[in-house]
Design brief:
The chain is α/β, with parallel strands linked by helices. Among the domains are: 153 residues, Rossmann fold, CATH 3.40.50.10380; 182 residues, 3-Layer(aba) Sandwich (Rossmann fold). Helix content is 45%, strand content 10%. The chain has 23 helices and 14 strands. The strands form three sheets. The chain has a seven-stranded mixed beta sheet, sandwiched between helices. Helix 4 packs across helix 9 and helix 9 crosses helix 19. The radius of gyration is 23 Å and the shape is globular.
Length: 534
């Protein structure tokens, strides 16, 4: 009552008031009242704009139910309908027409003095949707929401950015609701100089240890910028390195289930894009860390796309893929499975149903526990469903999807599909990098994160066939990943944090965003028991 009188709003509100738990109940009632996922998304978006802390608290406490709405798979529908859903600014749009004064655009951001991390996309290849131009903002906003909800990074330190360099998507160019520049996508030197100016402007405006998260760039550009910038400042590409780390975490637990070392597995990647190359390179790094020479480690890693098995004669592939080329020739996936007899099959093709009944039955024929990673997003692009994987392998498959799949009962046993969800990796990675003020992020950081995630998987999950931690524990996982990353950065002297805290866990908790009202201290929660120590 005193607050209402001081603010001059007495009488404008009903006399009753709601505490945080009453408000969460009201949010859930409103959330459930929406008839479809887009309706639920727009409700949550409006909630985040008017009641930020309540939004993040709701997301944290109802993660399993809400994550598919703010992230995959609903985010694909959000991007597809972005022009219809757009209401007010949720990030910055930096266009090709802003060349020469990008830093002035960045200074327009309302929290510019506190930004510690930027998630940027040019919309070149969004999920399995292709070129989505400026509509990529939907992805960047969703990613950064999870920085806060899962890792506790304060939202005023985060900035989503869409680099609008046009689009080659004719449907968007002809859509009256499209929010971006109606020009053909800019390529070549002009494009690369624009990205360079953007990077220089971010580091000048927000500081040299600002973390830049590159998202959904077309594969050649994604690798080009990662190679160019990785050791120059704190940055990462989630499509390459985040996906690679999540895949490696799953592979480490396949090793645990099959009691067969990764060195002895045969890997077949269906797709030669950012995701599959990121996974293959992360796997290669792990095998080399174990003492294998690159040439030997590559022998059991095969890649195939619509043109056939990656071999010395295949043209048009990226240089990053060349080391995985073989002298073999095979045009179709089903023939490749029969010829190579892989024990782990990974899909990043965005081709729905690519893992056919014949392919899955062949995997089961050659392996007691065939591992099937159908990682393409959204769900409509998945190479197979969990049900198909279990059905055609007699329930013996170790299945992981890129999107969530419901449990499947086979011969009376409940099987829980795993989800290689990057939300388990990049929020914690960013938390560690920001907290430790990383100078750059070497590939070893992602191996550390992958190993941490693999170690957090309970025996209960493993026995049900799930190679990953439960999504409901994602904020616990993010914190552990953040601590592991920060410790690695500090111990290897690639951290600008001074003085170095005596207890990194306590220091990190004190840096996190509070999910409670009127408290300077962070939202408190208790860790479940995990087999991890620091």
């Amino acid at each position: 009552m005193e607050e209402r009188q001081i603010l001059g709003i007495h009488g404008l509100w009903p006399c009753s008031y709601r505490n945080i738990h009453d408000q969460l109940y009201a949010v859930m009632a409103n959330f459930d009242a929406r008839s479809d996922n887009i309706g639920r998304f727009t409700y949550l978006l409006s909630l985040s704009r008017r009641h930020q802390r309540l939004f993040f608290r709701f997301l944290r406490e109802h993660l399993e139910k809400v994550l598919p709405i703010v992230y995959t798979p609903t985010v694909a529908d959000v991007v597809n309908t972005y022009g219809l859903l757009f209401r007010d600014p949720t990030g910055l749009y930096v266009t090709i027409f802003d060349r020469g004064h990008i830093i002035d655009i960045l200074k327009n951001w309302r929290e510019e003095e506190r930004v510690r991390a930027v998630c940027v996309s040019d919309g070149g290849r969004v999920l399995g949707l292709g070129d989505m131009g400026a509509s990529c903002m939907g992805i960047c906003v969703g990613k950064m929401a999870l920085y806060t909800a899962l890792a506790g990074v304060p939202p005023n330190q985060l900035l989503p950015i869409a680099l609008d360099v046009g689009t080659d998507n004719e449907e968007l160019l002809n859509d009256p609701l499209y929010v971006g520049a109606r020009i053909k996508r800019v390529h070549g030197d002009e494009y690369e100089e624009f990205v360079q100016e953007f990077v220089d402007s971010v580091l000048e405006c927000f500081g040299p240890d600002t973390c830049i998260h590159f998202e959904d760039f077309a594969t050649p550009n994604a690798f080009k910028f990662l190679d160019k910038y990785q050791r120059s400042f704190c940055c990462f590409n989630d499509d390459i390195q985040g996906t690679g780390a999540m895949g490696l975490a799953g592979f480490l637990n396949v090793e645990r289930v099959t009691q067969r070392k990764l060195e002895d597995h045969v890997f077949l990647f269906a797709g030669i894009g950012s995701a599959c190359l990121g996974l293959a390179n992360m796997l290669l790094s792990e095998l080399q860390r174990r003492g294998m020479k690159q040439e030997d480690a590559c022998q059991n890693i095969y890649m195939i796309n619509e043109h056939g098995l990656l071999n010395d004669a295949l043209t048009g592939c990226l240089n990053e893929a060349r080391k995985f080329a073989k002298s073999l020739d095979c045009a179709k996936l089903d023939k490749a499975v029969d010829q190579l007899k892989p024990s782990i099959l990974i899909g990043g093709s965005s081709v729905r149903g690519l893992f056919t009944e014949e392919v899955l039955r062949s995997m089961a024929k050659y392996n007691e526990r065939p591992a099937i990673f159908a990682l393409s997003n959204p769900t409509s692009k998945a190479e197979c469903t969990a049900e198909q994987a279990y059905q055609y392998t007699e329930g013996r498959a170790i299945f992981c999807g890129g999107s969530p799949f419901p449990p499947v009962t086979f011969n009376g046993k409940r099987l829980q599909p795993g989800q290689a969800n990057n939300s388990l990796i990049y929020p914690g990675l960013a938390l560690g990098a920001i907290t430790a003020r990383a100078r750059y992020l070497p590939n070893e950081v992602f191996s550390v994160a992958a190993t941490t995630i693999a170690n957090l998987v309970s025996e209960e999950n493993i026995s049900s066939g799930n190679m990953y931690p439960s999504v409901k524990n994602a904020h616990y996982v993010s914190f552990h990943v953040g601590v592991s990353v920060a410790k690695y950065l500090i111990e290897n002297d690639i951290s600008n944090l001074r003085p170095i805290p005596e207890n990194i866990c306590d220091y990190m908790k004190n840096c996190q965003y509070s999910l409670d009202y009127g408290k300077a201290l962070p939202y408190t929660w208790t860790f479940p028991h995990f087999p991890v120590s620091y």
